[in-house]
Amino acid sequence: MTTKMAINAKDIFRNQHRLIRFIEQSIRLCSNQSLKAAQQQQQQEKSTTADFEISASVNTQYTHAPEPIKHNKDLGDLFKASQMSVRLATPQQLHTKPDNDEELGFGKLFTDHMLKIYYHKSLGGWQKPEITPLENLVMHPAAKVLHYAVELFEGMKAYRGVDGKIRIFRPDMNMARMNLAAQRSGLPTFEGKEFVKCLSRLLSIDSEWVPHTEAASLYIRPTLIGIDPTLGVASSDSALLYSILSPVGSYFKTGSGDGAVSLLADPSYTRAWPGGVGNRKMGSNYAPTINVQNEAAARGLQQVLWLYGEDHQLTEVGTMNIFMFYINDQGEQELITPPLNGLILPGITRDSILAMARQWGKFKVRESVFTMPMVSELLNQGRLLELFGTGTACVVSPINRINYMDQDLYIPTMEQEKPVHELIRDTLTDIQYGKVDHPWSMVID
């Protein structure tokens, strides 16, 4: 074989995965045309009988954009997406894609590439972003993340719409929340819009990993860790901001045919407290919950309902925010969720539900403390209609049973003729999967 032939053969092998992806995409695009037409017809049928009209706009009275982050004066240089370098995976580095998108678990498979952005105060601040093949991280054994949990993360998803386009949901909210957690952790902040541009490039490169079904999506895990190789509890002068991608299916294995979850509510355990960081998405909030989750599983329950205070206030369900739909003392239907008082995470799904429900105007919506004695009383009086958890991973998760003070409370969430939680879930997923044009959905070019 001549040198020229060898070079040509090398080019063919280097690019063959791109040809395969192009052919797969073309085949799926043809099938998507008929799928889109069928789903449009289904949507038209739904709209004739829907209780609420899904608005293609957001009333600013009910929601607002997050405030810009204020960086520390000594932060140094900020990174820009325009500075990004890309190193694509070789054919040997490509991972096998799942055969069936609808049978995916959660967080067990990962795509071919990752995004990495280093911060070094000694080098002037943030370095240039880079996309590389998915690879292990190398760090000093004294890195602060390993000793003091100087770490935070976010949870986002990319959805393949009925039109074949890929969308992400309200990324500005995730970026604002991530920067607030960075400030609380002594980690460097960054410009959220630039990071979203970097994520968009990563998603476009690994676009064929976004599942071609509404039963699954591509989970996005932005993470920021302190990598300063020094012992001692202090701010980290070096950090790594990175993101990995994972095709995912259902978050919960409920064991029930209707998808509802059962909960352990044990007041002897507390997830968060005033003045703490229960309102920030840090890894240190989650490790202490694992043992309690195992205890719930040992009792045949799926999740933990976290209570706070002597009056047993409901705060969160596992890693989700919680909502209750009930008949209030005035005989009105009301949707209630705990307030942002520092004990709970300011969920993006939570904020979206509150905005939509207030804009619908079909029932009262309130952010207020409510307790387990209140839940028990409403249940005994037949006024408790639904309880459900919400979050990026699960969207909406109905609750059918709570084990509280060694007593099982059976919640009639799944017994309602027109459940509110189903309306909320369908509305959100219609936006996320592009059935409804909406400013909350950002299309990845």
TrEMBL record:
Catalytic activity: L-leucine + 2-oxoglutarate = 4-methyl-2-oxopentanoate + L-glutamate; L-valine + 2-oxoglutarate = 3-methyl-2-oxobutanoate + L-glutamate; L-isoleucine + 2-oxoglutarate = (S)-3-methyl-2-oxopentanoate + L-glutamate
PTM sites of type N6-(pyridoxal phosphate)lysine: K281
Listed GO MF terms: L-isoleucine-2-oxoglutarate transaminase activity; L-leucine-2-oxoglutarate transaminase activity; L-valine-2-oxoglutarate transaminase activity
CC per GO annotation: mitochondrion
Gene Ontology biological process terms, A to Z: L-isoleucine catabolic process; L-leucine biosynthetic process; L-leucine catabolic process; L-valine biosynthetic process; L-valine catabolic process
Xref: InterPro entries: Aminotrans_IV, Aminotrans_IV_CS, Aminotransferase-like, B_amino_transII, BCAT-like_C, BCAT-like_N, BCAT_family
Keyword field contains Glycoprotein: no
Alphabetic keyword roster: Amino-acid biosynthesis, Aminotransferase, Branched-chain amino acid biosynthesis, Pyridoxal phosphate, Transferase
Enzyme Commission (EC) number: 2.6.1.42
Protein name, UniProt field: Branched-chain-amino-acid aminotransferase
UniProt source species: Drosophila grimshawi
Gene name of the record: Dgri\GH24496
